[in-house]
Amino acid sequence: MPELKALAPARIKWAVELLDVQPDDSVLEIGCGSGIAAQRILEKLTGKGWYCGVDKSDAAAKAAFKRVHDPEHPHHAIIRRGAFDARNHEPLIFNRVLAVNCNVFWTDDGEALPGVGRLTRKHSTFVQVYEPPNAAQRSKIAHILQERMSPIFSEVEITKRSVGGALLLAAVAR
Ligand SMILES: C[S@@+](CC[C@H](N)C(=O)[O-])C[C@H]1O[C@@H](n2cnc3c(N)ncnc32)[C@H](O)[C@@H]1O
Q1: Fewer Cβ atoms within 10 Å of its own Cβ: the N or the C terminal residue of the chain?
Q2: Which domains does the chain carry?
Q3: What pLDDT digit, counting tens, does each position of 82-97 carry?
Q4: Model confidence over 135-166: pLDDT tens digits?
Q5: What residue ranges line ligand 1, CB within 6 angstroms?
């Protein structure tokens, strides 16, 4: 059986809320860490829905697998170790994509963003949430994401929020 639900920080709670998971959704999480968001997502996938978490860290992928793998329902949650690469997934396979504190979309060359566009169907939701160390960094991330995402997704909404001292930023694309 999967492990008991871990306490989630505010950024993860907000990200899962924004993702608005429905029972039959197919969900990709990029940089799934130890699977804390995954647990919250999986409890909403009560229909034909399934979850795929990707993380480039061996330790994170192992921890996520331990947290969410259920031998009785092995296809409900899949964990893949490796850097996110859209070519490793079938096109148009997901209708929800999530990334929390995974910096690949605003650092590097931004190549990962069109990759997400290729994996998502019409009317999909792509949620990124960040908890940067200060307000200047939060503004920088917001600016870069707005510029990079607008040509790829038809709607991009960037929102800032502070929860108990944590400065958060969400970018939601549809
Ligand atoms: C700061 S941790 C955040 C983990 C979790 N999402 C959270 O908010 O607690 C970032 C995670 O993203 C993973 N990561 C970073 N770049 C990645 C990439 N290009 N592909 C897959 N995973 C990546 C890291 O290995 C790490 O586990």
Answers
A1: N
A2: 10-173 (3.40.50.150)
A3: 999 999 999 899 999 9
A4: 999 999 999 999 999 999 999 999 999 999 99
A5: 11-12, 30-31, 33, 54-57, 60, 83-84, 100-102, 104
